[in-house]
């Protein structure tokens, strides 16, 4: 790099990321999803001398709100207005395309900042650890969600939706319900959402949904009857999605609002076996103790007793399968290397104390044939070098958000100035709002530690903070995307969206995002 180029790049960086106070409390938040943004907001409010830098490996902020929340849930995304105001605060700066662990290490970050809060979530998946898990046609729900939400890392996932009429989703949490709904919902309804264009095009072609009349050529329409007969013979007429849970309807992990939504999806026949609804005294006890579970159970019972509507054209089937755990995946003889089914073991429930029941195998098995499997059994956080990590529970050991050096839980072993928030702190559970309380707790710990001298006070601290980060990124030739870069992406996506009657058209590749942002 020439001296002039270095000068220009430094001037650009310091203009884009300006600071205010000469002795601020230098805070770095890693991750700009709900946990990170709420932490930044609470920190800025609670400490008027705090200067908060947010780094994210993506050029776009908002984490799961952008790449996790379903496209047909726009109301959930409104929170980004509040998060934008946080990022636009004079004491806050956003550094996109800066990756903890490769652009900068954790120890470097801790040397630069008085306080580091890790809120980078859970970007991997729990594995089932059963034979056949690596076959093609098996995806994690996270990958599938990233794909339809235009996450640049899953742009090329290209799940094959054309060569099968059946998808099996393992797990019955809200993510499982999201992916089932996206697979089954009429594409005319999805077309007006911010679903990624490549995903909408693939879903329109999907054989997991009905082949619409309009997509048939005129001569084919005239002989529709024979097409339907042929499709029925090939079992390609009724498209099926199975939602498989290892426990029963009294333990289903989803919530009532999301369940009600999928039960009411247009042109979807719901199948639930009435015998699965039988309740043991232990189930009764569980339902008595959880209002959400009770409501979910009631909705499932109502859907089971109502039964599926009479078959009509364009209808798809959603089967809730209870008391089955995946044992292995089978490989297609026709397409070696590709999944052709799931081998399931029937289960029963066993009490393990404090009202909890777990699934235990019965030794009886059955198979569901399918060409696609989505594993929706939970997300997983991934540690970075030198970060204490509890591999069993997939979280960073912490006390109220203060990182503890090992899993013993000994509060004496606190890592000074290092904190955690969100899924990395408590595991992959909870809705967006849960992160607000989580951030409040972490920020309260930071303030307490500051007050008690466990963090150097801003007047005595020698940490360079933002200036040091800019210098280090500059030395490594890492060109961060400032919040104004994201605003350019946002503006472009909305503009493209307005031409198509959508809230936005997401730029789905790294190349497109960076071209607009920089
Ligand atoms: P989740 O709610 O924890 O559900 C995980 C599912 O996987 C459960 O059905 C679980 O069954 C099953 N499972 C786990 N390990 C398994 C195994 N080895 N074999 C078979 N099944 C297994 O997780 P999630 O659906 O990924 O959701 C994550 C969080 O995000 C949740 O808190 C969820 O509510 C939230 N979320 C909310 C919304 C919304 O509000 N609209 C949307 C999406 C996600 P068991 O119950 O038997 O363990």
UniProtKB/TrEMBL annotation:
<keyword id="KW-0285">Flavoprotein</keyword>
<dbReference type="GO" id="GO:0005739">
    <property type="term" value="C:mitochondrion"/>
</dbReference>
<feature type="binding site">
    <location>
        <begin position="172"/>
        <end position="175"/>
    </location>
    <ligand>
        <name>NADP(+)</name>
    </ligand>
</feature>
<dbReference type="Pfam" id="PF07992">
    <property type="entry name" value="Pyr_redox_2"/>
</dbReference>
<keyword id="KW-0274">FAD</keyword>
<feature type="binding site">
    <location>
        <begin position="246"/>
        <end position="247"/>
    </location>
    <ligand>
        <name>NADP(+)</name>
    </ligand>
</feature>
<dbReference type="InterPro" id="IPR036188">
    <property type="entry name" value="FAD/NAD-bd_sf"/>
</dbReference>
<feature type="binding site">
    <location>
        <position position="100"/>
    </location>
    <ligand>
        <name>FAD</name>
    </ligand>
</feature>
<feature type="binding site">
    <location>
        <position position="64"/>
    </location>
    <ligand>
        <name>FAD</name>
    </ligand>
</feature>
<protein>
    <recommendedName>
        <fullName>NADPH:adrenodoxin oxidoreductase, mitochondrial</fullName>
        <ecNumber>1.18.1.6</ecNumber>
    </recommendedName>
</protein>
<feature type="binding site">
    <location>
        <begin position="430"/>
        <end position="432"/>
    </location>
    <ligand>
        <name>FAD</name>
    </ligand>
</feature>
<keyword id="KW-0521">NADP</keyword>
<keyword id="KW-0560">Oxidoreductase</keyword>
<dbReference type="InterPro" id="IPR055275">
    <property type="entry name" value="Ferredox_Rdtase"/>
</dbReference>
<feature type="binding site">
    <location>
        <position position="258"/>
    </location>
    <ligand>
        <name>NADP(+)</name>
    </ligand>
</feature>
<feature type="binding site">
    <location>
        <position position="35"/>
    </location>
    <ligand>
        <name>FAD</name>
    </ligand>
</feature>
<feature type="domain" description="FAD/NAD(P)-binding">
    <location>
        <begin position="26"/>
        <end position="184"/>
    </location>
</feature>
<dbReference type="InterPro" id="IPR021163">
    <property type="entry name" value="Ferredox_Rdtase_adrenod"/>
</dbReference>
<comment type="similarity">
    <text>Belongs to the ferredoxin--NADP reductase type 1 family.</text>
</comment>
<dbReference type="GO" id="GO:0016491">
    <property type="term" value="F:oxidoreductase activity"/>
</dbReference>
<keyword id="KW-0496">Mitochondrion</keyword>
<feature type="binding site">
    <location>
        <position position="430"/>
    </location>
    <ligand>
        <name>NADP(+)</name>
    </ligand>
</feature>
<dbReference type="InterPro" id="IPR023753">
    <property type="entry name" value="FAD/NAD-binding_dom"/>
</dbReference>
<feature type="binding site">
    <location>
        <position position="423"/>
    </location>
    <ligand>
        <name>FAD</name>
    </ligand>
</feature>
